[in-house]
Write a structure and sequence with these properties.
The protein has 12 helices and 6 strands. With 238 residues, the chain is an alpha/beta fold. Helix 7 crosses helix 8, helix 8 runs parallel beside helix 9 and helix 9 runs parallel beside helix 10. The radius of gyration is 19 Å and the shape is globular.
Length: 238
């Protein structure tokens, strides 16, 4: 087999056309350069908020995130404070759990849990005739170290979290509210943003998913690891 041909794409973010890249860091650098070029200022987000949205665009290849992401005013600062304090992060899927690598959490003293595959969760879900996601949220609420809730799949998890917040059982530092789908996904997110006093980063409408939800935590954690300034953390968005 001969050498892999090089193709020229002519995108302004590339200096030499499109090459067959194998360096992950260079691929990411060029990807971010493309996003910056195709979503130039002025933007609705700045500082860490823009880093979060940019990471979401990178993960999904979806520039609609510019219009769909919603930030509670305290979301970034409270979320980063929880991460800096070595909190536990609950996710509603194993995919989201695996999408937040422990190598990034270890320097912050954080850990990521799911509970979705726990035998006791499955048993209680059958007994209560409800979803495992609901029971997993209840298990997370019982652990005071859980400060960040990452919901990327199950609307029932987000709805249950609303109930537990309203009951005064838990006050999350941050909720990443991004269940995806056609049944109750958009509605659960709209309800959460309307009713919950907890800080949130959410995606309006049907879009979302575990990879998207996980990348939000990764973006906040990486900003901390990179030594983000107070000005960047506070940011400015409309």
């Amino acid at each position: 087999m001969g050498p892999v041909p090089l193709f020229k794409c002519g995108h302004p973010a590339y200096e030499d056309g499109m090459n067959y890249l194998t360096d992950p860091q260079e691929i990411e650098r060029r990807s971010m350069a493309i996003i910056e070029a195709e979503a130039p200022p002025p933007r609705a987000y700045s500082g860490i908020a823009w880093q979060v949205v940019r990471r979401m665009i990178h993960t999904s290849a979806d520039f609609e995130m510019l219009d769909l992401v919603r930030f509670h005013p305290d979301a970034v600062i409270q979320g980063m404070a929880a991460l800096a304090g070595g909190c536990t992060i609950f996710t509603d899927t194993r995919m989201a759990c695996m999408g937040i690598p422990q190598r990034r959490m270890d320097p912050l003293g954080c850990k990521v849990v799911s509970f979705m595959s726990d035998p006791d969760v499955a048993v209680l879900a059958r007994e209560r005739e409800t979803t495992r996601a609901v029971v997993a949220v209840d298990k997370a609420v019982a652990d005071p170290s859980v400060r960040i809730f990452v919901i990327g799949n199950a609307p029932t998890a987000l709805l249950r979290l609303i109930e537990r917040i309203e009951a005064g059982d838990v006050q999350p530092a941050l909720v990443v509210a991004m269940p995806v789908g056609f049944v109750n996904a958009a509605e659960s997110k709209a309800m959460f943003m309307e009713k919950s006093p907890a800080p949130y980063i959410a995606v309006q409408g049907r879009k979302g998913g575990s990879p998207l939800a996980a990348c939000v935590v990764n973006a906040l954690a990486q900003a901390l690891l990179d030594g983000a300034s107070e000005e960047a953390i506070l940011g400015d968005w409309t």
